[in-house]
């Protein structure tokens, strides 16, 4: 069984859902990670989840981006704020569509510390 990619972390006393999506290499890998995310997020109260997602070293194709859009739309009612790290310049462009489909603000950061600090300020 694969290691869990979704866990809870605390920053300044605030609970953040951490999605370790580092090194995703294909659509099947991504779909499994995204399903784990969906289960974790949708078990929370509406508009309550702060999410930090790390995509460092992941490779994306059109199917993975579409799966991410679908996940963002499904999770929307439960998410208060979301931060991403680990995206390259081109991946940031691809994820602009995910941001638009989610109809919520997803912020990009260059490091986890900045992302965690911003998320705490949203909580």
Description:
This protein is α/β, with parallel strands linked by helices and 123 residues long. The chain is built from 4 helices and 5 strands, in the order ββαβαβαβα. The mean pLDDT is 87.
Strand content: 15-25%
Measured distance between first and last alpha carbons = 34 Å
Number of DSSP helical runs: 4
Unreliable segments of 5+ consecutive residues: none
Q: Averaging pLDDT over every residue, what do you get?
A: 87
> Outline, from the CA principal axes?
globular
Please trace the helix and strand order, writing H or E for each element.
EEHEHEHEH
Strand order of the largest sheet: 1-2-3-4-5
Oligomer: single chain
What structural class is derived from the secondary structure elements? alpha/beta
Question: What's the gyration radius in Å?
Answer: 13 Å
Write the layout of secondary structure elements.
Layout: E1 6-11, E2 14-20, H1 27-41, E3 49-54, H2 62-75, E4 79-85, H3 89-102, E5 106-109, H4 112-122
Parallel strand pairs: 2-3, 3-4, 4-5
Antiparallel strand pairs: 1-2
Helix pairs in contact: 1-2, 2-3
Summary of the model, kept short:
With 123 residues, the chain is an alpha/beta fold. 44% of the residues lie in helices and 24% in strands.
Name the descriptors.
5 strands; 24% strand; alpha/beta; 4 helices; 5-stranded mixed beta sheet; 123 residues
């Amino acid at each position: 069984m694969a290691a869990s990619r979704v866990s809870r972390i605390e920053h300044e006393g605030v609970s953040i859902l951490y999605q370790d999506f580092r090194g995703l290499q294909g659509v099947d890998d991504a779909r499994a990670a995204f399903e784990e995310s969906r289960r974790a997020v949708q078990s929370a109260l509406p508009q309550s989840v702060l999410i930090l997602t790390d995509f460092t070293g992941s490779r994306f194709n059109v199917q993975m981006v579409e799966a991410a859009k679908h996940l963002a739309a499904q999770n929307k009612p439960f998410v208060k704020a979301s931060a991403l790290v680990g995206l390259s310049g081109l991946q940031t462009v691809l994820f602009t569509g995910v941001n638009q489909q989610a109809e919520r603000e997803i912020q990009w950061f260059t490091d986890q510390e900045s992302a965690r600090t911003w998320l705490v300020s949203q909580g």
